[in-house]
Input
Amino acid sequence: MALTRRQRLRRVGTVCCHTLRNLAYYRAWFEMEKPRANEQFWISVNGNFADVTVLEWCKVLADDKGKHHWTKVVRDERAFMIGLLARLGTDEVTWSAYVKAMRFLRDKFIAHLDDELLMTLPQLDVAKVSVVYLYTYLLENEDERDVFVDAPQNAVEWFDRFSDEARAIYHA
Output
């Protein structure tokens, strides 16, 4: 059964929020200087946060044939892309290279384990800014019939909330 536009918008927004939450948890560990880094539980948890960040980010910003890619919910794709590139302070070539790097990481190391020997996690500032931009764009331009009425209304505050939560836990 195909999703309605409303359902798809909601899901894309939810994936954006999942991306930001996992990225906040991942980053907080490093900001706290890797507390309990000698314990495998915390090493695994933090690695999982990075993996989920990449997986979720790819769903909405890298998988152009995927069901939840931004092009499936944004009506004015050109305006979105112009705004995204401006927000990132980059051009289409650099953006495409970043998307390719995130897909490579997901495809060769996270979703599958291929024969590549070197795994490099791309700079996640771009992931954060781009998903914040997408979520904000959805709220401001695509929110018909209050799709996001009970959803977070500010992506940066959402990120900060979970960053604070993680720092408190890592500090305990």
Q: What stands out?
A: Residues 5-171 form one domain. The two ends are 46 Å apart (CA to CA).
